Amino acid sequence: MRTAVRVVTSVAGAPRLGTDALLAIVRFAVQCDAAGVDAVLVGPDIGVDPYVLLGGVAAATSTVVLGCLAAPVGERPPSLLAKQVTSLDVCSGGRAVLGIAAGGGAQSLAGVESEAELGDVVEICRAMLRVPGPSYSGVRHAISSAWNEPRHAGGEPMPLVLLVRGPGTPPVVDSQQGRSPITLAARFAEMCAVGPLDVAPFDTGRCLGPPERDRRGLGRIESLLASTRDELDALSLDAGRVRGSVRLLALLAAGRAEAQLTAASAARAAGADAVVADIEVGRLTSGTTDLVSGLACL
Description:
Order of helices and strands: EHEHEHEHEEEHEHEHEH
Mean pLDDT: 85
């Protein structure tokens, strides 16, 4: 996966979406599918069960990867979450990913209370996606000979994505050694997403001159992505994995399409393996063509 979009509501806790808005998401996904964008994701606060919505998207598309970034682990036990995303994987022909986030704030539905609980969620979900009948006993959650069939039979196991370091997102509390989000990503995940990253410094419609904005924005993105990449590689080696085994995703906050595309190019140049651009539901009917076509060309 190199490019993706994530559909979000404009504010956390927004009113539940009506049928027209949900159909707009499906049409937008079809547009992304045709343009060559690699993945269509939804946020945890989308207003309906994300996996029911993504099931409809799966029926209307053929190639895009599908998932919720981040899955609502605060609303359901990890064993149920693993079963739901596995069902989506089967229905979509192996196109699902499981995204998990730490912290609260805008990710309130995806939040966990401690790093120990986050570790339980990650380990249970990973085991159920890869191991027949796994058992696990953790701090907050446990499974015993968990059943997770049928599952998609072809290709690699379903990827796991961990979202870490969201600016302005309160960290989880009760830290436990070896259970921090970045450590869990290095040990268990295929992808680690960083963000949402502010794209305002790349907005040429603002008062500062473009060179000054680009230098400021690029510096911030370069620093954050570089430090995360170094930490991921070091922790991956400690966990017995090879350097670079965890792909680094830059999650870009919603904004003007021009600013998001400039920030996406900067993130790729700074070492991100892929970019994910947030887009608000209310903007799906305007300004999406430039964003989708631009992402497809990255």
